[in-house]
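To illustrate the input format used throughout this study, we show a single complete record. The first block contains the structure-token representation of the backbone; no residue identities are included at this stage. The design step must infer an amino acid for every position from geometry alone.
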């Protein structure tokens, strides 16, 4: 909807189409960081509160605390990608470009990075960088099901966003088009990621936790 704009004398000088029409012109900026009770709680916030309250000796162990946070954050990003996927599916067949495609892919990729880092942290490997293919090689678990195919999938994920630019910005540092290809199957991306989570949990994370108790 177009909103009229007037000069200081009340004379109509033009109009502007608002990006979010539901936000009125007289909207008042509100404080984001709150000290009192808040309507929504994050898992990370709850975990930090429990650690601050010293509810258990486990929370004093940085490795335990961090692995729990990484595990849940990985799921949060993947579940958010699945939620956006529903919007992508709704857009199909209408000859429109989906607003959700790239954000969905970014969330999916980031969930993979966090899950791989959870595995590496449990194994005592220092966490470095964001490139999922490098993190995957550090895990080195050829005994897991479909290891070669999963390796190929991880390589595809890096190809989609090789320089951490395509899914974040869509342009290069030189303000030019990127060389990455933006044609990929988001449904397969998400399904592969869900399978990867299952495999890593069963064959890497759980054995490590149980064998080190």
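Output of the design step:
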């Amino acid at each position: 909807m177009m909103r009229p704009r007037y000069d200081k004398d009340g004379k109509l000088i033009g109009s502007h189409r608002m990006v979010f029409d539901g936000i009125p012109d007289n909207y008042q900026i509100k404080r984001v960081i709150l000290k009192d009770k808040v309507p929504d709680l994050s898992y990370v916030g709850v975990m930090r509160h429990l650690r601050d309250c010293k509810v258990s000796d486990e929370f004093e162990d940085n490795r335990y605390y961090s692995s729990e946070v990484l595990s849940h954050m990985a799921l949060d990003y993947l579940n958010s990608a699945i939620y956006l996927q529903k919007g992508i599916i709704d857009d199909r067949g209408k000859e429109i470009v989906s607003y959700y495609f790239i954000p969905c892919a970014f969330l999916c990729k980031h969930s993979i990075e966090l899950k791989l880092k959870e595995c590496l942290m449990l194994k005592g490997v220092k966490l470095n960088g964001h490139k999922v293919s490098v993190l995957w090689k550090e895990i080195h678990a050829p005994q897991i099901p479909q290891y070669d195919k999963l390796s190929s999938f991880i390589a595809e994920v890096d190809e989609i966003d090789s320089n951490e630019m395509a899914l974040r910005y869509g342009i290069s540092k030189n303000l030019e088009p990127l060389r990455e290809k933006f044609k990929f199957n988001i449904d397969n991306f998400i399904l592969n990621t869900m399978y990867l989570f299952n495999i890593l949990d069963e064959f890497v994370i759980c054995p490590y936790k149980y064998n080190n108790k």
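Structural context for interpreting the output: The first strand starts at residue 2 and ends at 6. The two ends are 61 Å apart (CA to CA).
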